[in-house]
Amino acid sequence: MTDNVLQTLQQLVQDVIAPDVRELKVRLTPFEKLVDERFNSQTKSFDERFISLTKEVDMRFSAIEERMNSQGKEMDMRFPALEERFSLQARQSEMQFKTLMSAISESKAQTDLAWVREFSDLREPIAVIESKLAAKAS
Length: 138
Hints:
Layout: H1 2-137
């Protein structure tokens, strides 16, 4: 009895369900191929786009790097000129300072000489006044 039920169920599955499964399988295969083709197409498209963008970024980075290198070289070339210019300005400032200090020293010497002359000129009248004071005091 159990064998008959099993055989009946098996026969029923083979007669009713199996053809539907086979039909679905037959219909599913082209769909799977279509999905695979589209996926592969999209994957290829994304890969090509990624490679293209990578190359573009590399080119831009190289251009920026090249520009920075050239600007660095320009700056390296400018530094000696700037150093020479600052050295020249420092020497000029030093010469101006020495000239100014010399002029100040000369002026101070002239002033000191004028004071010495004034004191020399006053020495005789002071001596006269001191002798008169000494004479009054004695």
